[in-house]
Amino acid sequence: MKSNRFFVWSLTISLLCTSSPLTAQNDTIPFLYRGHLYFNATLNDTVSLDIIYDTGGSNVFGVDSVWLAHSDWTPKHLGTARAGGGAGSMLVPLIMDSSKVTIGNIQEHYDIVPVFKLRDVVDCHIDGISGIKGIDNQPLEIDFEHNLMIKHKNGLPSTKGYKKIPIRYGLHRIYIWAETKIGGTLVKGWYMMDTGSGGTVSYTAQAARQFQLDTISGKRYICDVAQFGLGDKKQEYIVYLPSDYMVIGDDTIQKMPISYIPEGVGAFGNMEYLGVIGNAIWSRYNIIIDAENEMLYLRRFKEFTPIPTYDYTFRNRTDICKGWLVSSLFREGDAANAGMALEDTIISINGRNVTDYSWEEEWDIDIIPVQVLDIIGADGQEKHITLEAKQRW
User: Fold this and answer.
1) Is residue 316 within 8 Å of residue 324, measured between CB atoms?
2) Torsion angle (degrees, nearest 10) of CA 280, 282, 285, 290
3) Residues 41, 10: one domain?
């Protein structure tokens, strides 16, 4: 299970002082989908970097600290900022140079650029993050079927075959009314659209208490996660359980897993929304966002089909170490019972060093039915573990 399939975050900034390149054609910007939407961007016309597009990240553009340290960009004016995310808040360096970011035919300017430890939350494939700046009066189309994004400068495109759903749009975030039935409990209200999440639906601690999700009987998994999101809470636990269905507009998704964070902080603490809807849902649709008129248009092209998975996730950190770091682990699951621990380093799978895997092979690692892993523990001890993928839902 790749870590960014379950990655969730949200960003807010308050000042304390005052891979694989993609080529754009015309107004269409291609992206690479790996749980997130990855775009090749250019900073100040000269510096190339790979970023993810995050509708939960407000209008912020930020860069990763490790990437910055090894890049050709040398900022001149620095400060500090307080940033809030999915794991609380933290002080971050703040670049106070006016900066231009180009993604395909889209250019945006930023007076400040925060520096985050993004790779601690996602992995080494990410250099930066961009929120949803500039869509207030230009409809945005995200075509997951063909991995394309278009900002429509001349108004709303054809919506034939799409379902029209009212939304709320404010402070550069998108909120949608939806309802989910979980073990007979109906959870309905406003959810945030979050393409910074690789999961399905993730509920806040407040929603978990309000709807008493801990009391729902039936199958559930408790998962420990290292650095769940941006913030100062280094470890979190998440509860996964199956839903009966979810309804967005008049479209129903049957029998998908959802999650909640009983002790969530930051974006998953006490919020005005129940939770976030991530790319495991959105990637089943082609989407047109009309923020000016507060409308969302959806056309589903893909069903939600559970597949066999493993009960651990990892982050590729071959930028700073020799392998993939274990980032989450189901309690009393197959991997944990075999001796795997959070922040172990996976060196090889099925006799092949992980540094030899392409990004595509890394992303598809779950489809391998049996994994024989060579691991180095935090104490330096070697571990040899054999795991089988299982249908868990």
Assistant:
1) yes
2) 180
3) yes
Question: With a cut of 70, which residues of the chain have pLDDT below it?
Answer: 1-26
State the Cα–Cα distance between residues 68 and 123, nearest whole angstrom. Answer: 15
Residue linked to tokens 């945006």: 108
Residue 321: give its domain's CATH number: 2.30.42.10
199-258 pLDDT, tens digit each: 999 999 999 999 999 999 999 999 999 999 999 999 999 999 999 999 999 999 999 999
Main-chain dihedrals φ then ψ at residue 62, nearest 5 degrees: -135, 160
Q: Which amino acid type is present at position 37?
A: L
Nearest Cα to Cα of residue 312 among 225, 237, 202, 196: 225
Q: What is the pTM of this model?
A: 0.92
Residue 309 per-residue DSSP state: B
Which pLDDT score is estimated for 3? 44
Kindly tell me the burial class for residue 273, based on how many C-beta atoms sit within 10 Å of its own C-beta (0-12, 13-18, 19 or more). buried
Rounded to whole angstroms, the Cα distance separating 166 from 302 reads 22
